[in-house]
Amino acid sequence: MSDVGTVLSTIISGMLLGGMLALTALGLSIVLGVMRLVNLAHGDFLVVGAYAGLFFLKFTGIDPLLGLPVIALLVAALAVPLYGLLLAPLGERGAEAQMMTMFAVSIILENVFVLAFSADTRSIERDYATLPLTLGSVTVPLIYVIGFAIAVSLILAVHWLISKTRFGRDLRASAADAQAAETLGVDVKRVQMATFALGAACAGVGGTLIGAAFQFGPSSGAAYLLNSLAIVVLGGLGNVLGTLVGGLMLGFLQSLGGLTLGDGYRDLVGMALFLLVLAFRPDGFLARRRS
Amino acid sequence: MKTLSGLAEAGVLLGAFILLWFASDFVDDYGLQIAFRVLIYLTLAESWNLLAGSVGLVSLGTSCFVGLGAYVAFGLLNNIDAPLPLVLLGCALAGGALAALVSPALFRLRGLYFTVGTLALAELLRLTMVNVSAFGGAMGIFMQKDPPPLPELYHYALGVALIASLAITACARTRVSVILRAVRDDEDAAAQMGVRPYRVKLGAFVVASALVAIAGGVQATKLGAIEPYGMFGLQWSIDVLSMVIIGGVGLRLGPLVGALFVVALGEALADYPEAHVAIAGLILIVLIRFAPGGVVGFAETLSSPTRKRATA
User: Fold this and answer.
1) CA-to-CA distance for B126 and A39, rounded, in angstroms?
2) Residues of A with CB below 8 A from B120's CB?
3) Does the structure show a pLDDT above 70 at B261?
4) B98, B119, B202: best mutation site toward chain A, by most A Cβ within 10 Å?
5) CA angle B130, B136, B138 (to 5 degrees)
6) Structural domain includes residue B197
7) Which residue among B116, B131, B278 sits closest to A38, beta carbon to beta carbon?
8) How far apart are CA A220 and CA A56, in angstroms?
């Protein structure tokens, strides 16, 4: 029915989108690694980033992709008091209390979005967003390529931050064994706060990129949260570059699902993958099988 | 309640059940509607407590099993015209079977992904119903028969709530409770003592899911028409979480107090759906932070300040 060019274009578009979402997934992954917390409001942080991009463009007229540092700071600044006021006091009570708190934050944020910005779906309108980029028989939207390039650069930057800097060393120590790290002089609470802010910033920037490529609405967060989780388990928890590979894989498989079964199955493929990977390869596809 | 033995507690439950059974003759339609909702919610909250309170698994997948129960019930009613008790048995079997089927994925990494896995499962089922036309697609399914009269539905809801409450009693007042608590508090130590944590968790998950699926079946029979967005909607999970946290996680009277509170809140804010959810969220945050034992736990500390809190 569809020729090779269309099929290839769809699959490559899907992989570019998966790479874009990998940045958001990375934020989820580092918070999960350091705090043992599945941040159920992570998808809503993404939506905050998308709205931030939208209004940044509206009020300053500057392209939101140039304003990404501002948006990252804004979302991180939102996350810091959330950690300080809500999560840090629950530190001793285990991840469940924190998780339920973030769930409550998520439902509050969703309703705040509806009240403040209405339930309409929106998108960040840029002229170049609709431009196609053609290479041979493959045509993909230019904005996907731009978003993908930005996301990959930022993922590499976070990789450098975690593997080469002092903060990264503290972060890895806290993730491996918080108690031991504390004894050795790492300020674990501070590391957790910085990690939470960094994770939120990843979601926010990812949200601006996705908001430029797609429509979004107040309740878009849930689907992105679940897809990000699928990426995290595909790539393996705690593996930064694995997250990128996980994103590409999810994008590839979702496009394949969409092509063979119909467009409605794209998200379904993400959920099914998440559960299947957990059941059969819980350490991710890249990890060597444990004996 | 603390001093009651298991048998006495079961007796109290049965007594309340018999009294409430005949209450339907004296209450008007509105009262029955409210009572029905409280009973369904009570079932959901008791089931949630069975998982979280006894084996420490926090679920956000209530909607998943409510929806499953609803679709199974309609499938059996519409296709083979099965009698309602048999339909509900079918719901229970389906709920338990699904729980067993997905447990290898959800129990991975010590339940780190359990909460979000149940969320993903609900989304997976919803998208399946939306996309597969045999399940009615996005439009949903109508029940071909007329729904049973309200008093009959009320009696079914009452029966389900009794079963759920008795299940909690069995888990909290018999020797089973020791095993459950051992798994919740320290999986490794429990395993050393010869308990198999995986099986214990699986058992609790299967029973809780079967109960939720029955409640979903009863709810769907009352509605007469179901669609995937409502039956698999996150609202079910939000309400359940609100109930158990308001009532007090793992406390015997928690679900009842929580169910009454959430239904009352829903009635009071029926005209402001957005505010309703946002207020529920705020209540959750405040209670988790300042009163982890919920209303019941708070009352217990007030009445006996020296006694150690049950949730500690």
Assistant:
1) 22
2) 226, 229-230, 271, 274-275
3) yes
4) B119
5) 35
6) yes
7) B116
8) 20
Residues in chain B: 312
- The answer to whether residue B310 sits within a structural domain is no
| Cα(B172)–Cα(B181) distance, integer angstroms | 9
In this predicted structure, the answer to whether residue B224 has a pLDDT above a threshold of 80 is yes
As given in the structure block, the two tokens for residue B11 are 């007796």
Closest CA to B20 of B35, B8, B33, B6: B35
With 0-12 / 13-18 / 19 or more C-beta atoms within 10 angstroms meaning exposed / middle / buried, residue B146 is exposed
Measured distance CA(A83)–CA(A31) in Å, rounded: 11
Average pLDDT, chain B: 84
User: How confident is the model over A157-161, as a mean pLDDT?
Assistant: 92
Q: Chain A closest CA to B233's CA: distance in Å?
A: 12
Cβ A248 vs Cβ A260: under 8 Å: no
ipTM of the complex: 0.83
Name residue A113's amino acid. Answer: F
Kindly report the number of other CB atoms within 10 A of residue B3's CB atom.
5
| Domains contained in chain B, number | 1
Residue B244 lies in a domain: no
Q: Which residues of A touch B282 (CB under 8 A)?
A: 104, 108
User: B16 lies in a domain?
Assistant: yes
Half-sphere exposure in the Cβ direction for A180 (13 Å, CA):
7
Name the token pair of A69: 């540092």
Q: Are B245 and B288 in contact (CB under 8 A)?
A: yes
Indicate the average pLDDT of chain A.
87
For B36-58, the pLDDT digits (tens) are 999 999 999 999 988 887 778 88
- Whether the predicted pLDDT of B306 surpasses 60: no
Which residues of chain A does B139 touch, with a Cβ-Cβ cutoff of 8 Å?
A: none
**Domains along chain A with CATH numbers:** 4-280 (1.10.3470)
B278 interfacial to chain A (CB closer than 8 Å): yes
B197-223 vs B29-55: helix crossing angle, rounded to 10: 170
Q: Which range of residues forms the domain containing residue B80?
A: 2-233
What stretches of chain A adopt beta strand conformation (E)? 132-135, 138-141
The answer to whether the Cβ–Cβ distance between B108 and A93 falls below 8 Å is: no
Least confident of A65-74, A142-151, B229-238: B229-238
